[in-house]
Design goal:
Blueprint: H1 2-12, H2 21-31, H3 46-56, H4 61-88, H5 91-102, H6 105-109, H7 117-137, H8 141-156, H9 160-176, H10 182-195, H11 197-210, H12 213-222, H13 227-230, H14 237-250, H15 256-269, H16 274-291, H17 303-323, H18 328-337, H19 340-353, H20 368-373, H21 382-392, E1 399-401, H22 407-416, E2 424-426, H23 443-449, E3 452-454, H24 464-469, E4 470-475, E5 478-483
Parallel strand pairs: 1-2, 1-3
Antiparallel strand pairs: 3-5, 4-5
Length: about 475
């Protein structure tokens, strides 16, 4: 019932068509049956793409990728409900925990577009279910399933490596105390290897192609250019403020006091119970990793922490319901779980009032404040409208220099709808078939014979050498590049 309810919510509020940015890139990769990508193994996410590509045979790849994520997200919510039900043996605290995660901003946002993070959440919560069952029964087969699930998690996203470290420490403790044997560890390693097989295959292929083992390992851990962000150990006041604002938006409910109570309850049991130690470690590690991360979209990396926070809310709710009787308390706690929704309604308006909604550029058919701060998007066809109109109004044999946000819907529309194959879209995340490789040395030669457009003539969205050499004239939704002496 929880799965069906969450699935209905996410499908009903999902994007109906093409989307922007990384989510649009996922749609583009699914369309091309591209399991590896071009940004390094850490950003390949092969497990997710295998699932989404399989679903794409049932309909439009863009829509199927979105629906795949919606159903995966519903599975995560159901796993959380199951975990809490097995843990506290009461339905209401489990429901409050599930609602807390299901209605949290970032998780809900990533349930309505194609994304990989909620699959990480679903597998993490499934891991905790089987780990709890191991603690309840002592049956080692649950540890085998745990290893398989974590291997699948790593094959989806390297965030699962954080929980891998926790489980490795746990297994060392169990082995030291004679509760498992080396044979069991070997079986677990085999199960983990089976789960991680999609990433392992890509790893071996990259190693064979390049002959560079060190570079292949770095690609698997950091991608092609994110080593400094992953290993960052410094933090600025701006990052702290932004992170606290995102966390506040996700926990914009009076039930946040249940999180504090739940954390206290878990902390009291840390010395007595291994499962509580694992939960406490995951809370700290996932929060610490995301909090000092420096990539622009680091708010998405808090999703595993929000899973753990929802668990603590469920524990806090269980403690409250155990200590206080009465009919009003359960109603109040459930009512408070829905308080995040009016917060999301008000957030864009508040952001504008505080001057937080100002962006270097506004994309056509997209209100950035609404787009980023409200997780639901039924009827949001802005990316599809932009791509259709931009391609339709481009001069014959034109070239569009697109940034990573705007390129995916352009590329998808051109290939999937066979729209304007004469136009070539060029970007860092992908280019049209037969597109020329634009460099500073040949841009003038190309611009002399073909009309060159950019989506946004501003630093960060357009190559610097183009900004330096050309003026830009608005031409429909795009900007036409004109030599400075010929404007």
């Amino acid at each position: 019932m929880v799965f069906v309810g969450a699935a209905l919510l996410y499908v009903a509020t999902s994007a109906p068509s093409l989307v922007w940015q990384d989510s649009g890139l996922i749609q583009w990769r699914v369309l091309n049956r591209d399991i590896e990508g071009n940004m390094g193994l850490a950003l390949s996410h092969p497990l997710y793409y295998l699932i989404a590509i399989g679903a794409s045979f049932l309909g439009d790849p863009a829509r199927m990728a979105t629906l795949t994520t919606a159903l995966i997200s519903a599975w995560a919510v159901a796993n959380l409900f199951l975990l809490m039900g097995l843990w506290v043996k009461r339905t209401l605290p489990a429901a409050i925990a599930a609602l807390t995660l299901a209605l949290s901003h970032t998780f809900w946002w990533h349930a309505t577009v194609p994304e990989t993070y909620n699959l990480t959440a679903a597998l993490l919560l499934a891991e905790l279910v089987v780990l709890l069952q191991y603690g309840n029964t002592g049956r080692v087969r649950y540890l085998y399933i745990l290893a398989l699930l974590n291997g699948l998690g790593v094959a989806n996203h390297m965030l699962a490596a954080i929980s891998f470290v926790c489980y490795a420490v746990l297994l060392a403790s169990l082995l030291m105390h004679g509760q498992i044997r080396m044979r069991d560890v070997g079986v677990m390693a085999a199960f983990w290897g089976v789960g991680a097989l999609p990433l392992e295959v890509l790893f071996v292929m990259r190693w064979v192609q390049t002959g560079d083992l060190g570079g292949t390992i770095a690609s698997a851990l950091f991608g092609d250019r994110w080593r400094a962000d992953v290993l960052n150990a410094s933090i600025t006041a701006r990052i702290v403020v932004e992170n606290l604002m995102w966390i506040g938006l996700n926990l914009a409910t009076p039930n946040v006091f249940l999180l504090i109570l739940g954390a206290w309850i878990v902390a009291l049991q840390v010395r007595r119970c291994r499962f509580h130690r694992v939960v406490a470690a995951l809370v700290v590690l996932y929060l610490a990793f995301a909090f000092r991360y420096t990539v622009v979209d680091r708010y998405a990396f808090f999703i595993p922490f929000y899973c753990m926070a929802a668990i603590l809310v469920g524990i806090g709710a269980w403690e409250m319901l155990e200590r206080f009787s009465g009919r009003a308390l359960p109603v109040v706690l459930v009512f408070f779980a829905f308080w995040t929704i009016p917060a999301y309604v008000a957030a864009p308006m508040l952001a504008r009032e505080l001057g937080l909604a100002e962006r270097p550029r506004q994309l056509p058919y997209r209100d950035d404040a609404v787009y980023h701060l409200r997780p639901w998007r039924p009827g949001d066809d802005g990316a599809a409208r932009f791509a259709d109109e931009a391609l339709g109004n481009t001069a014959r044999d034109g070239i569009i220099l697109a940034d990573a946000t705007a390129a995916p819907p352009l590329l998808y529309t051109q290939k999937a709808r066979d729209k304007r194959p004469d136009v070539k879209v060029v970007s860092s995340v992908g280019s049209s078939d037969g597109a020329p490789q634009i460099t500073p040395e040949i841009i003038d030669e190309i611009a002399a014979t073909r009309t060159v457009y950019v989506v946004t003539p501003a630093p960060g969205y357009c190559p610097e050498y183009v900004l330096d050499r050309y003026e830009f004239a608005a031409d429909g939704l795009l900007y036409r590049a004109v030599p400075r002496d010929g404007l």
